[in-house]
Amino acid sequence: MRELVADRNIIEIRDTIGGCVHEIYFRVPTTKERARYNAGRFYRDGKKIVDRTFVQNIEYGLAIMVGFRKGTFGIDGKAFSADKSDPDYREDWKELLRKAAPEIAAAVGGTVLGGVEMVRLPSAEDLEDLELTVEEYEPVGESSSGTDQPVPSENELIVKSTTENG
């Protein structure tokens, strides 16, 4: 059953690199986040359609993640936590995932925000002269071109919850 008002939902992500299953905690995205996620997945650059789906999955996946079960992420053989009350808490846990395991955030974002399918696909005529390219992922602030692509700011995405459903 899909819980519509929970402050913390759980998704399990199988990590073939780490050989484990991560239990990731996430909040339900807002309607505005869903709209921005979908609007930013593709853009047109002349006759090219640029696919930003992976980038959107990472950025929005990180934005909705609120934690994970301790024990499946670590540094130098030591597990760390996303729970502020845990002695092994790391304030930079999202940044660590962004840099070292972006595929985990992408799996969360793609599953949670990409859970809706299009009903009408473009016709062959609509796509006739277009070339599809895939944008490479560069974390915000690390663009080699010197210009950052528009991504949601933390202030736009973080929704404070007043209750914690367990």
Q: Which percent band covers the strand fraction?
A: 15-25%
Continuous helix count? 6
Number of strands: 8
Roughly what is the average pLDDT, rounded to an integer?
A: 83
Any idea of the CATH topology of the domain at 1-116? rbstp2171
Share of helix among residues? 25-40%
Rg from Cα = 17 Å
* Lateral strand order in the biggest sheet: 1-2-5
The class by helix and strand makeup works out as alpha+beta
Main sheet record: 3 strands, antiparallel
> From the coordinates shown, what is the CATH architecture of the domain at 1-116?
2-Layer Sandwich
The global form is elongated
Biased composition (Polar residues): 142-152
Region (Disordered): 135-166
Name the features.
rbstp2171; 166 residues; elongated; 30% helix; alpha+beta; disordered C terminus; 8 strands; three-stranded mixed sheet; three-stranded antiparallel sheet
What does this structure look like?
With 166 residues, the chain is of the alpha+beta class. It has a domain at 1-116: 2-Layer Sandwich (rbstp2171). 30% of the residues lie in helices and 20% in strands. The protein is built from six helices and eight strands. Strands 1-2-5 form a three-stranded antiparallel sheet. A three-stranded mixed sheet has the order 3-4-8, with no helix packed on it. A two-stranded antiparallel sheet has the order 6-7. Helix 2 (53-64) packs across helix 4 (102-113) and helix 3 crosses helix 4 (102-113). The longest helix has 12 residues, at 53-64. 20% of the residues are buried.
SSE arrangement:
Blueprint: E1 9-15, E2 20-26, H1 31-39, E3 42-45, E4 48-51, H2 53-64, E5 65-68, E6 74-75, E7 78-79, H3 93-100, H4 102-113, H5 124-127, E8 131-134, H6 154-157
Parallel strand pairs: 4-8
Antiparallel strand pairs: 1-2, 2-5, 3-4, 6-7
Helix pairs in contact: 2-4, 3-4
